[in-house]
Amino acid sequence: MEFISLISLTFIPLLIGFILIYGTIKQVPTYESFVEGGKEGIKIAVSIIPFLVGMLVAISIFRASGALDAIMDWFRPFMKMIGVPAEIVPLLLIRPISGTAALGMTSDLIAVYGPDSFIGRLASVLQGSTDTTFYVLTVYFGAVGIKKMGDALKVGLLADVVGIIVSIIVVAFIFGTK
Amino acid sequence: MVNYIWVGMTVIGIVFALFNGTIEDVNRAVFDGAKEAVTLCIGLISVLVFWLGMMRIAEESGLLEKLAKLFRPLVKILFPEVPVQHPAMGYMLSNMISNMFGLGNAATPLGIKAMEELKKLNGGKNSASRSMVTFLAINTASITIIPTTVIAIRMTYHSTSPTEIVVPTIIATILSAIGAVLIDRYFYYRRSRKG
């Protein structure tokens, strides 16, 4: 799987190079545009501080009290049967419901188990490859006044389940389960 | 919903700690958790500033638009009820491209615009049309090319290779999007058989 890691490594630098060359050919004031766009990045990073503080404090309390371990102990026998670490269960439960809670959970898992562990990598891929179904549904349907959602919720949640299964398989296949 | 989860985790944690004798750990957790959140956000600044700066160049040079055009034939198959020249098509494409490149803040207003147009196409009814369900399915499967936030978190916790998850994420995201489309089609055909 060396090859996949190599693509992962070169992909971003190549993309950066391509964007810069393309921008120069199209005579975009590249540096000025970069700075303008970058300002937005600061705004976003600062604006999520309160969300993350709230969520990470709640998760830290939940973990430090021992409640998180107790819940994982319930799930452990079942998760062991299907070969998935029980530590990932809280993230799976929260992912479709709240984006910041999931982000907090992911960073908590990465902090506790290490970014280069199976759990850390799985949390990373899960965070990137699934989205907050309930949020997307509420915002998009709410904004245009759709009251009857039809099959949207079912389809969205089933798609999340597929995403979770696929992520587990892909991570186990590429990095192994250590 | 988020409110209940948030209060639930905190209160259950505190009550559990009282019975479990871990109240001292909980005390520390409050301040450690808060501190960690701020550290994390500061770690995010670097990646977000750089990436959003890059994406601004991609946007102004017309690269994103060009990419949207490239995906048009594929999206046409996904939304057979939407006329190709309809504005809904353009909004949906821009929304998907923005999501792909981690521009969530730009994606949401575009997605809402797309929904408005889809509602017009559906005669302004307040029930979800076939295209709306498909659009939401693809959105919740969230096709990502660069998971910027995740890379930043991995950097903060000293990963030996923060970007090694890029290709696995792309593979997982594409497969789950295909899954979402298939599930959506299945439910559509079930609906149309019924009535």
Automatic annotation (TrEMBL), chain A:
A Pfam family assignment: Gate
Keywords (A to Z) from UniProt: Membrane, Transmembrane, Transmembrane helix
Domain Nucleoside transporter/FeoB GTPase Gate: 46-147
InterPro entries assigned to the protein according to its UniProt record, in alphabetical order: Gate_dom, SpmB
Transmembrane spans: 7-25, 45-66, 78-98, 118-143, 155-175
Keyword Metal-binding among UniProt keywords: no
One cellular component (GO) term of this entry: plasma membrane
Record keyword Membrane present: yes
Protein name from the UniProt record: Spore maturation protein
Source organism of the structure: Neobacillus rhizophilus
High-level lineage: Bacteria, Bacillati, Bacillota, Bacilli, Bacillales
Automatic annotation (TrEMBL), chain B:
Originating species: Neobacillus rhizophilus
Name of the protein described by the UniProt record: Spore maturation protein
Alphabetic keyword roster: Membrane, Transmembrane, Transmembrane helix
Pfam assignment, any one: Gate
Residue intervals passing through the bilayer: 6-26, 38-58, 88-112, 133-153, 165-188
Domain Nucleoside transporter/FeoB GTPase Gate as annotated: residue spans: 42-152
Cited InterPro entries: Gate_dom
Protein origin, superkingdom: Bacteria
